[in-house]
Specification:
By secondary structure, this protein is α+β, with helices and mostly antiparallel strands. Helix content is 26%, strand content 24%. The chain has a three-stranded mixed β-sheet with strand order 1-2-3. A hairpin with a 6-residue loop joins β1 and β2. The longest helix is centred in the middle third of the chain and has 11 residues. The chain is elongated, with a radius of gyration of 29 Å. The model has no long low-confidence stretch (mean pLDDT 81). The structure holds zinc ion (ZN) (2 copies). One zinc ion binds next to loops.
Length: 136
């Protein structure tokens, strides 16, 4: 054989914060590993044929294999792009920053988006001029 085929599973501890509510997250991640570590000799003979992807070939150093790059790549690839404390995390109130998870009923009574203020004027029955303009 040209080397050692390594297969296995690694478990890594995760610590971070929710992308929506910033709550701390502690989790575990399981990754599957599979990599062929070639003997140094066979690597040299390979280089004569194809000199591409030289850096991507894992090699045995003496009788040892270095798991760190393999492990790091596998974990980084498996990390969630936007970690959440739970799948449907409601996040934070955009007005005051309170955590909706802790106060699900939280609302602002007079929360009128300034972009809709004009529409609310149109809806007022005592402004017939603007409604007429709409009908034409
Ligand atoms: Zn969250
Ligand atoms: Zn609020």
């Amino acid at each position: 054989m040209e080397g050692v085929l390594l297969t296995g599973t690694a478990t890594a501890g995760l610590e971070g914060e929710c992308a929506r509510c910033l709550d701390p997250i502690v989790d575990e991640l399981d990754v599957n590993l599979q990599e062929l570590f070639v003997y140094d000799d066979s690597k040299h003979s390979r280089d004569q044929g194809t000199d591409t992807e030289d850096d991507e070939v894992s090699t045995l150093e003496d009788d040892l294999l270095d798991l760190e790059p393999l492990l790091r790549d596998a974990v980084v690839l498996a990390l969630p792009f936007q970690p959440l404390c739970m799948d449907d995390c409601p996040g934070l109130c955009p007005d005051c920053g309170i955590n909706f998870k802790e106060e699900p009923d939280h609302v602002h009574e007079a929360a009128i988006d300034p972009r809709w203020a004009g529409l609310q004027q149109l809806a007022e029955p005592d402004q017939p001029d603007q409604i007429d303009q709409q009908d034409q």
